[in-house]
What does this fold into?
Amino acid sequence: MTPGTLAARRTGPEGLPRLLAGMAVDAAPPTLAGHEDRYGPLPTGGGAELIELVEQSGLRGRGGADFPTAVKLRAVAGRRSPIVIVNGSETEPASAKDRLLLMRLPHLVLDGTVLAARAVGARHAVVRVGERRVRALDALQQALAERSDGIGIELVAGPEGYVTGEETAVVHHLERGIAKPTFIPPRPYEHGLHGRPTLVQNPETLAQLALIARYGPEWFRELGSAADPGSVLVTISGAVAAPNVYELAFGTRMTDLLRAAGGRTEPLQALLIGGYFGTWISAARGEQLRLSRAELRSAGAALGSGVVIALGESACGLHETARIISYLAGESAGQCGPCVHGLAAIAESVRALAEGQAHSGELARLKRWCEEVRGRGACHHPDGAARFVQSALAVFEPELERHRHGRCAAPAAGLPIGAPAATPGRRRTASGVRPPGSADPVRRRPAPGRPRRESR
It folds into this structure.
């Protein structure tokens, strides 16, 4: 097919789904020919023009940091010998959106990769995926074998510990085989892979960029609001009838978000928004919110990597918090004292509170430790873990007295720990598909680095 120009007069999908509109019902990723039949060929155009389109669209990163994509592109563009990294690590246990895109729509992600590389003047890109994501790796390999884009794209499998997806850990792994975060500054856009300016983006951001390049910023802004344009992929799980990855417009009410996932299976006591570095919010407060950056921020939360977990009243929020913080403490890279020792102490303190074994000063000590570990690591692992615990102490405060007297018999909810296991399924609604599987056996030699700590 003849290449089109950027934002040519094409008609994009109306309403939802957008990103998931090209999802094959039979779960097989489309061939390049099938992909181009739906979307048209990869657009051509100058880097400055593409960056301008992205800026007009208001696209922000979907990997958790929520940073304006055009700003990141401009920070790398024009520098000497830049490189692009697609960070498909997705080490957040409760998220499956990037894995879904890589497995089922690899060409759309690769389109965004090529366009981003052209925008910043890069001739080389690396797609980094967790070593156990065998189906995603296979889909990407097959897609790359069909393409000839004028830039070199390398596919790398890496370790899957929680902090290995942090951008400096990804760069460190690609350089030296050790997936540990490094102290910043400098940031990767200044001094990244092999000392070169490096653009790091996640798969959903690049897939959105590929659509904006085809259909334009005005089309992108037809959904959402002026402050929060477009759609977003959200992994919804917990006490809902149909745990799944859903594409939703910004501005969607949280009650409608839960309804999209089949509705509640029981009354809710809390929502965990943003994943394991996220924030517990009481159900009464959370269900009044919208998928809006400002509204979530007013409640002390952020969507992060696109995760919403519903905690039912039959589960124990303190026990669940204890289980998750124990996992996070074990996922430390082991190189900063406040993280190694501080998170272990915090996890033990939360466990004692949950099991009714805490002494009278335990709660005050725990609150002090949460403040003391923040901002004192090479990465933000202590910060996210402490914020998560602090939100639990606020939301589940009424439960503390009950636990102090040993009157809680509710179990933990069994939220995902480690890589989430799911099975591929057919399209359920127009805007939702079941998350693809991740529990395939390892078929590639594990990349060197710290062995993954298996959760208990």
